[in-house]
Amino acid sequence: MASAPTDSRHRSFLLASLALALAVGMACSLTGPQDVGPQGWWDGFGPVIPHDSFPADCTLCHEGSDWNTIRADFQFDHEAETGVPLEGAHAAAQCLRCHNDRGPVAMFAARGCAGCHEDVHLGLLGPECADCHNQENWRPSEQIEKHARTRFPLVGAHVAAACWQCHPGSEAGVFTPVDTRCESCHQSDLQRAVDPDHLASGWTSSCERCHIPVAWKGAGFHHSFWPLTGAHAGADCSACHAGGVYAGTPRQCVACHLDDYLNTNDPDHQAAGFPTTCNLCHNTSGWEGADFDHSFPINGGPHGSLDCSDCHPSPGSFAAFTCIDCHAHTQPDMDDKHSDVNGYQYNSNACLNCHPNGRAEDD
């Protein structure tokens, strides 16, 4: 309890000191170096460089009233006098930023940018500031292009990502090397991926096998062993990979479409003994409009508009048929109509020789 007054006085002293520092700082900022030109001087800067080598005629630079004011017509061609041109922000910098009591400016100039500018990158980005910065300002330029020469080129959504999202500490200029694997940054996305469940399936690395840097949605898995075309392209993974099980998924159509096979009755696939190799007649666009490769010429002519049952009237009976089965010609009819056909035979092969499209007028 006895220390309470001391603590109170200590806090009051700190507050008063802080207020005084702020007041002095504000006063300095209002009357200080921002009112001084590049060649000017302010007593807050402290000692200036020795003038031993300067001309003895002070009026060449100074006004007569004080030592702080430089003549309005004073000019100094830095490039002509020293061989060092001042470009960009350096042209507007105060002389005392480089010429002060720290030592000969040549000693610092020999170090390059590091002679005057602290390396906030702690040496992690190399000694050449000009690789990222120019003399206009410190804002780095062309970083996307430069990043392309690293282990991780920035494309897609990564282009718009803030540096600190991958490089913690980059806000202060510290760019420590980072792991370039997707999962090193995207653990939270991995945890949320439940359709399908990535963790349960063991998909915890090599995200680029399915995803591209544009977005997580619309994964681009290369389904090479079973191309996803037609209706398969829009199907959910779970439609074929039930329960999130991907290993050992059968590739035969009937493995997923057995119900479609059993419920088809026009014609009845099961009764007719049709094979379960659905792709013989169907494609991935849809079940309707099966494209069966009918060896009998039904494309074009009167056969093209027939239903299967017109030639195969017995349910489930798709045995081979001949022209004579549907076109009940008798021997006299054939003799009468084909008397001028030398060597005709009474069978389908002979009919197709003259009627390849099933038209009576074909010859």
Which tags fit this structure?
rod-shaped, 363 residues, mainly alpha
Description:
28% of the residues lie in helices and 0% in strands. By secondary structure, the chain is an all-alpha fold. The protein has a domain at 295-363. The longest helix has 28 residues, at 4-31. The N and C termini lie far apart (125 Å).
Summarize the structure.
With 363 residues, the protein is mainly α. The chain has helices at 4-31, 78-82, 105-109, 143-147, 163-166, 182-185, 187-192, 198-201, 237-240, 253-263, 269-272, 308-311, 323-326, 331-337, 348-354.
SSE arrangement:
Layout: H1 4-31, H2 78-82, H3 105-109, H4 143-147, H5 163-166, H6 182-185, H7 187-192, H8 198-201, H9 237-240, H10 253-263, H11 269-272, H12 308-311, H13 323-326, H14 331-337, H15 348-354
Q: What's the order of the H and E elements?
A: HHHHHHHHHHHHHHH
Distance between the termini: 125 Å
User: For the residues shown, what is the average pLDDT?
Assistant: 77
Q: What structural class do the secondary elements suggest?
A: mainly alpha
Beta strand %: under 5%
Quaternary state of the chains:
single chain
Low-confidence stretches: 1-31
Query: Can you give the helix content as a percent range?
Result: 25-40%
* Sheet of most strands: none
Radius of gyration: 45 Å
> Number of DSSP helices?
15
**What is the tally of beta strands?**
0
Shape: rod-shaped
